[in-house]
Write a structure and sequence with these properties.
This protein is α/β, with parallel strands linked by helices. It is built from 11 helices and 12 strands.
Length: 326
């Protein structure tokens, strides 16, 4: 064949492939989400093999192991005993609650660690919703935002570097920015869950934290998976309200949204490879149906290629170990 264009020439040698490689993924791109609880031991999570609710000691061990392979940023998710849950979620801004105590312990041990906290009421709310539930079942927006502000300030005071509102209430980014600034935390960043979809892929996470809604679903605040334009609207609002970074969640089934936000915004874009994505990769790998290392690294590279600057992934430590040649 007379072919002037033979794309395969650029693929003929590993060194040439490396020269023309357009994207890469490394440990510097990862935030490692970790589940914490008050208990003495680590409790494995059924649908997330390899992940546990970590005790304070278990958490220190896990953070140390991740840091050893170049992961320096961590997102904390607390499992709160049922007895501490109330309809107003007030444990969310208890200065001596599990999250503030854990932030202080980690910062004491490693002052340079980057800590991300979740701002939402679901772990603390007896109704299992991210916001306050009215007697008629509605999720109250403005009342919730007032509590989220207290929660964010409590987290900042305890050492959070980045607060990440995942609640999807309207106006919370701007309100949290004002609240943080008023308390002297102008250096604390806001990572907004901008396009957080009402997804079936959060199932294992809700098992991990025992945080599933007691009634109803999250469709009046999380986004409809059918919508694409709406993510741009959320992005515009979060940016205008002072978000430092925008997030898309889940990641794998929403690569088009990641690309849309990357193209529409000049802010860094994050993506959350959520619990259900982790569970799918684990389940298929455990059955020998997928090569876990290759499939996981490809999924992470795909998320980067779609336009994510950084990724929250339960595979953070493991992927960093693989990338280091382990
Ligand atoms: C709740 C929150 C959820 C996740 C992160 N923060 C669950 C939900 O919205 O129900 C899900 C993360 C995952 O599935 O890995 N504010």
């Amino acid at each position: 064949m007379i072919l002037p264009h033979r794309p395969r020439r650029n693929r003929k040698h590993p060194a040439i492939r490396a020269m023309v490689r357009e994207h890469h993924v490394g440990p510097e791109h990862f935030i490692y989400p970790l589940f914490i609880h008050e208990g003495a031991g680590d409790v494995p999570i059924g649908a997330m093999p390899g992940c546990s609710r970590l005790s304070p000691a278990g958490l220190l061990r896990e953070v140390e192991a991740a840091r050893a392979v170049g992961v320096h940023s961590f997102a904390l998710f607390p499992a709160v005993p049922e007895a501490q849950k109330t309809s107003d979620g007030r444990e969310a801004h208890n200065r001596d609650g599990l999250v503030p105590r854990t932030l202080r312990a980690l910062k004491d041990r490693w002052p340079d660690v980057v800590l991300v906290t979740d701002v939402a009421l679901d772990p603390y709310n007896s109704d299992g919703h991210d916001g306050i539930v009215a007697p008629d079942g509605r999720i109250l927006n403005d009342e919730t935002v007032a509590v989220l502000c207290k929660q964010a300030v409590t987290q900042a005071r305890a050492g959070a570097d980045i607060v990440a509102p995942s609640d999807m209430m309207d106006g919370r980014v701007g309100a949290i920015r004002l609240a943080l600034d008023a308390e002297g935390f102008s250096e604390v960043s806001i990572l907004a869950y901008t396009a957080k979809y009402a997804s079936a892929f959060y199932g294992p996470f809700r098992e991990a934290l025992d945080s599933a809604p007691k009634s109803g679903d999250k469709k009046t605040y999380q986004m409809d998976p059918a919508n694409r334009r709406e993510a741009l609207r959320e992005a515009r609002l979060d940016a205008a309200e002072g978000a430092d970074m925008l997030m898309v969640k889940p990641a794998g089934p929403y690569l088009d949204i990641i690309r849309d936000l990357r193209d529409a915004s000049d802010l860094p874009i994050a993506a959350y490879q959520v619990s259900g994505e982790y569970a799918m990769l684990k389940a298929a790998s455990e059955r020998g149906w997928l090569d876990e290392k290759r499939a996981v690294l490809e999924s992470l590279l795909g998320i980067r290629r779609a336009g994510a600057d950084f990724i929250l992934t339960y595979y953070a430590k493991q992927a960093a170990q693989w990338l280091a040649g382990g």
